[in-house]
Protein: Phytocyanin domain-containing protein
Amino acid sequence: MASSLPIVSPIFFIMLSLLLLISLCEGFDFVVGGNKDSWKVPLQSPDSLNHWAETQRFRIGDTLVFKYNNSTESVHLVNEEDYLACKTLGNHTIFNDGHSKFHLMESGSFHFISGSQGHCQMGLKLVVVVMSPRPAVNGTVHSPPISLALPSPGPSALSPSINQAVPRTSGNEFISVIMGLGSFIGHMIIFELM
Ligand SMILES: *[C@@H]1O[C@H](CO)[C@@H](O)[C@H](O)[C@H]1NC(C)=O
Ligand SMILES: *[C@@H]1O[C@H](CO)[C@@H](O)[C@H](O)[C@H]1NC(C)=O
Ligand SMILES: *[C@@H]1O[C@H](CO)[C@@H](O)[C@H](O)[C@H]1NC(C)=O
Ligand SMILES: *[C@@H]1O[C@H](CO)[C@@H](O)[C@H](O)[C@H]1NC(C)=O
Structure:
């Protein structure tokens, strides 16, 4: 009794899993400030861009989109020090095409300021914190690095790279999803052959 439904269903699940994979691979686009007129002065309040950022969840693979009038504005990707000081001169990555996309490829903090120091001082600046897909440290997130408390050269096993563990697990996640779906589809086919 071979009804047509068991023959169709593996194809259905393959298509479903392809759709799932596509949706997992694609990050979200975030227009900075929530609308296209946000990267400019005057701001609603000096902190309005960071208030906006705090209400969002940024993940690896997402994209920030800065939309602005490039005859009056630009965007500098800076370090924290230059961010705090509104320092517009330095070894910065500068965007000035009016529609700038910045791909968030790793977890951590990213600092942006206006290329105009005066505008930065009026609040045209942004910190985006990108979450890692899973907790970096199990249970001990706020404990200080152990190596700082050990001036003696004894335990050489403690490498100084303790804080550089930037998890980039999206690839692993991707592979495990593929493997999971593969075994799922395999089970479906075996089940239907029986
Ligand atoms: C950009 O700014 C310049 C100078 O203020 C202005 O003349 C121009 O109309 C603006 N362009 C747009 C698209 O708003
Ligand atoms: C500027 O920064 C880039 C990476 O962000 C680095 O490779 C380069 O060496 C830096 N240049 C100077 C002069 O610091
Ligand atoms: C400014 O924006 C206009 C229109 O979006 C673009 O044609 C131009 O190349 C931009 N200028 C620079 C310096 O990128
Ligand atoms: C954290 O890791 C240790 C071993 O490294 C494990 O025994 C413990 O159960 C883990 N705690 C949590 C909350 O996962």
The pocket of 2-acetamido-2-deoxy-beta-D-glucopyranose (ligand 4) is lined by residues 138-139 (CB under 6 Å). The CA atoms of residues 88 and 115 lie 6 Å apart.
